[in-house]
Structures are given as structure tokens and as C-alpha cells.
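Possible race condition, two jobs.
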Amino acid sequence: MLLTLAWRNLWRKKRRTLITASSVMFAVVLAVILMSMINGMRQQMIDSIISNTTGHVQIQDVLYHDEPSMDHAMEYSQEVKDAVEARGDAIKYTVPRIEGFCLASKEVSSRGVYLTGIVPEKEDRMNDLSSRLVEGAMFEPGEEFAVIGRGVATLLDLALGDTIVLLGQGFQGMTAAGKFPVGGILEFPLPEANNTMVYLPLNVAQDFFAAPGRLNSLILMLEDPGQADEVARLLLQDLDQEWYTTKTWEELMPDKVAAFEARDAQVRIFAWVLYIVAGFGIFGTVITMMHERLRELGILLSIGLKRSRLAMVTMLETLFIGFIGVLAGIAVGYPIVYWFYRNPIPLGTEAGEVMIDFGIEPYLTFSIAPGIFIYQGITIFIIALIVGIYPVRKVFALDMIDAARK
């Protein structure tokens, strides 16, 4: 009976109910948009790090992380292959790499570059590298040409068919030197990558560094990114820990993780400021609603309705309004964030430069993770419930004679 009475009371004054529910709805919409943007940016940063650099987990030589030199390139042994195969249910695919700094030159021009030996089809699966080709082609098995960044080509005045000379340090102090024709040019959104990246087939790069059968790291891409710590732990148990170690992306990028944590703390403070503002907005609407209903409440009490039952009715009304407002907020907020999820916002010059400095493409992205809508909806609903304490207290403190005369 109380549920029915509360529901009917809401729609006796549709305008009042809609105004109150709208205050809840707008609070939910603002919270959803804010958190969608923040979570989208955070996930963009993480995805950029994972897909372009570290992967979810890496297998390395035990000394490589502390002293990243070619001398600590690990042997890609059968032991490593067996350990990876044993965790095949959790590992989606692997990406082998050998990489190091070299001096690249053409005639009298020279520049420091970062040479990476890759398996193209695996790199494409990880970061869609071939889609960045603007000239030429990516090498196929058996081919031995270099694919370079557009900035490298511009700075060294290289074109397709020209020869790039590479000089560096190989495994155990060996001199690494070689000449390779340029067969492809890539364009990256990040200037640093454009100006430094040079790619060779994995086996060619291994021979160049005098490190056949060795890798700087074996990158593992997982079925479930949330299992990175567990997969790294299990792999380590299967490997000889005197020679090999495993690292998650968080261990490989501690500075980025610390930056994320600091940023998340700032975001939580800002979000709670938004919640408090939204709470006061809802509270102001409820105060106005109660003031308009004083005569009605006084009459109900004077004809014998118990205060406890009337208080329950007002609380149920608040629950209904909160529930309606939350559902409406999610219904309105979802299409907005979905649009921005499908159409990221390009950032201006200054903000874009900041993103580029972090190694991230300069776009403002949004997230449509279900947890965003659930968490914001529950939070605003709880705030509405807390505000609902006011009508209950008002009912118990109400003087029915004075209220009935208003």
C-alpha cells in the first residue's frame, strides 16, 4: 500500500517530480561524462604503452632490466618456448624483438637511431605497424631491406632504394655494421618515433648485432590483461631464474604507473567535488518540494496517518525519484559518451604537445566500460538517499496544525 501511495504521489504533481528527477539525471550525466573521459584517457595511455612498447608481460635476461645492453640479450631457448607454450591458454600471442641504438648515416650525414628487429606479422597484430607505411612496403620473409621513419628519411635525405649505413655495438662487444637498402618509409604521429625508428627483419637484425638466436625481450600479449601479474609469476616458476626473469608492463614503466596514481588521486578529489555540488543541487530541489507539500503533509497527519508511515512514504518517493533520475541519466549519458568514444576529440596545439610528450596520440578519448555507468549511478543514487533523510526528519518534526493551515 505504501509503495502504491508513494508512486501515485509522485505523479499527482508531475512537474515537481520531473524537476526533482531532472536534478538527479543531470548529476548522473555530468558524472558519467567526466569519468568516461578520465577513464578513456587513462586506458588510452595504458593501451599506447602496451601496444607500442612493453606488451603485457616480457621475458628477459635476468640482468637486462637493470643494465639494458646488447650483452644481456637473452637466449631464445627451448626452455623459454616450452614455458610460453605451457601457458598458451592465457597468452594470446608473442612478439620477439631485438633492439638497440645505432648510428645511421648516408654519405656525410649521420644520426642516432633506434634499430629494432621484428617479425612484421606479429608487430602488425600488436600495433598495426604496417598501416603506418606511406611509401614502399614492409619486408617479407627472406627479404633484407630496412623500413625507416619519415623523420629519419628526411634528416638523412633517404628515399626508397637508397642505402642506409648502420653502425653500433653488438653482442659481447662485437662491432655491428651493415648496409641496407631502404624499402619502406613509415609515418608515426609521435615525432620521436618518426625521427629515430629503423626496422629490420628479426633474423637480419640478430646477425647484425652478432646475436643469432637471441632477443632483448619476448613480449607476451595476454587474453586477459588483468592476469598479467599471475601469468608473470607462473612463467617465472617454469624458467631458470638464474638466467631469466619476467616483468609486467607496470614493472617496466614505474614512472608511468606513479603518474597514473597521482592523476587518479586528483581525479577522485575532483569527482567528489562534483558529487557534493550535485548533492546540494538535489537537496535544494527536495527542500523546495517539501515546502510546497507542507499543507498536504499536515492534512495527512491530522486525519490519522502515522508519522512513521508518512516518513516511509516520503522516503519511498525519494527512492523512486532517485531511481528514475539515475536511469534517465544513464540513458542520456550513454549516447553522448558513445559518440565521443567513436569520435575522439583532437586536442589543440598546447594540450596535444603535452600528450605527445607522454608518447600518446593527441586525442581526447572516452570509455564506455559498464563499470563507469554502474559506479556513477550507484554513487548518485546513494547521495539521493542521504538527501532523502531530510523529508523523513521534516515529517517527524512537523507541527500538523500549523502545516494544515498553510
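Job #2 (started ~2 s after job #1):
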Amino acid sequence: MAAAEAVAAEISTPQRPLGRPGKPLNHRSPYFIGMLGAAGVATTYLALQLLITAKDMLVLIGLAWFIAIGLEPMVSWLVGRRFPRWLAVSSVFAVGLGLLGVFLAAAIPVIAGQAAAFADALPEHLRRLHETNGSLARWSDRLDLEQHLHRLLDGGALMEGALGAGEAVLGVLGQVLVGTVLTIYFLADLPRIRRGLYRLVPHSRRPRAILIGDEIFAKVGGYVLGTLIIAVIAGSVTFLWLISLGISGALLLAVTVGLLDLIPVVGATLSAAIVSLVVFGSSVPLGVATIVFFVGYQVLEDYVLVPRVISRVVQVPALVTVVAALLGGALLGVIGALVAIPIAAAILLILREVVFPRLDRA
């Protein structure tokens, strides 16, 4: 120790009070390479564990970001009319929450009453289906559908189901509240977030990145607004059709159609099947007419509404749309299916503008 202190005193000079730096570590040393590899494996493992643990919250954050981009065109329109950004964001959410509140105040009592009436009438609907369809009756006897239905409609089972549904509703409301707050923050700070993301790009490539990024934002915003518009149209048309047939629970079924229509590819088919089965319970001819109605509306939606509202903005081939929706649904459920198509549009844009030109020049 004394020898080391003596050497330390010798190498300390007025120009370098702490002495000259020693030789750098040998980066080719097996010890250094092994430590660096172990640190990389440990960091990757911890990052994956964090992603798995926080998956639900990350999905919620991603969904809030997705909705904020979708609402940005309306906020930008108000800002262009000399609204302060905070007032534009507040106005958009106030109008949206006001419309939602009016709809819920008017629809919840009706939906609750129609759901109770539908539950009371469901056994009679099944009985009529059995009388008009022998094969369905045989399958019902094999599976004891009526017995399971009576158990489901039993008071104790309903109470247990109501408690479970209440817990699920509270959880969903909590997530909706958190998602709404995140969306407001994202939307309020979107210009700043946009500038921060673009600053991560090297200066020489930044103008090109701005053009591509803004195009992706426009595609996502157009897709979100277009999907909402088409879902509202689907629910409204279904409601008018069911009202014209005199079907009980028309509003409940129409809301179901509108919500399921948000799911790409399979949502419209699933909602049509549910409504048709309910109408079949009232009348077989009306059920057939309902199937024809949904087939006709689906043709109208696929070949008129979607091309005019969504396809011009997103510009994704039909095959890519189906594959993206299926993969998104398999990975993240309904939310994955919702965001898969604009993500596919963004990937196609990057491939077309960045990857393919480089490959062509290679």
C-alpha cells in the first residue's frame, strides 16, 4: 500500500492532478466478451419480463395513443379556427361525452327492459324453433339445451352472474377511465410528442421521416373516424329494419350490431348471425328476410361505404386486411383486430417508400 501511495504521488502533476489514464480495457478479452454477452442476455430477459408483466397496461396505452391520433383531425380543425389547443381538446371530449351521456341515458332503461323481456321470451323462441326444425330439436335433446337454459335463468344463477358481471363492469369502467385520461394527455401534447419522435431521427433523414410519419398519422386518423362512422350506420340501419319488423329488443340488437361491426372481417358476420337467430325465434319468414337484409347490407358496406370512407385513406389490399385482422385478433383479441389494419397500412407505406427502393438499388 505504501508503494502504491508513493507511485501515486509521483504521477500526480499540476497539469494532471489525478495522473495519466491507464490503458483501456481489452475489448477482445474473453472475460470482457463473456461479461458483455451475459449482460445482454440478462437485459433482454428483464425487458421481456417487463413487457409480459405490463402487457395489459401497454395495450391500454397503445389504444389511447391510437384513439388520440384518430381524434387529432377534429382537434386540428378547431385549432385552425383559432381555438387554443386545450380548448379544442376539451371541446372534442365534451361533445363526445355529452353525446355518449345522452345516448346512455336514453338507451340504458330501454336496453335493460328489452334484455329482461328477451330473457323471458327466450324459452318460447327456442320452443318455436324446435317445432319448425326437427334436426334442431334432436340436437337440443342431445345437449339438454333447455335444461341448461332454465339453470341459466334461475334466480341464484342470475344473481351469481350479476355479481360477476358487476365486477367485470367495474374493471372495464376503471380501464375506460384510465384510457380516457391517457387519451386526453396524448391528444393535448400530440404536437410536442410528434416533435420528440422526429428528433430521434438523424438530421439528414428528418424531412423524409416527417413526411412518412405524417402520412401514417393521417391513415390512422382516417381509419378510426371511418370505422366509427360505418359502425354507427350499421347500428342505425339494423335498428330501423328491426323496428319495421316489430322485433322486441330492437335497440339492444342494434347496439350489439354497431359494437361488433367495429371488429374487422368477422364482426359483421357474427352480428348478422346473432340478430338472424333472434328473429328466427319470432318468425321463420322474417328470419329469412333478415338474412337477406344483412347480405344486402354487407354488399353495400363492402363495395360502397368502406371504399368511400376507409379504403381511400388506408389503401390496404383485401388479402392484407384479412391476414392482419386475423393475426391481430389472435395476438391481442378485439383490440388487436381493431388496430391491425392501420398498422398494416403503416408497414406497407414504409416498405413502399423505404425498403423496396433500397432493395431495387441493391
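The longest helix spans residues 85-132.
Logs attached separately.
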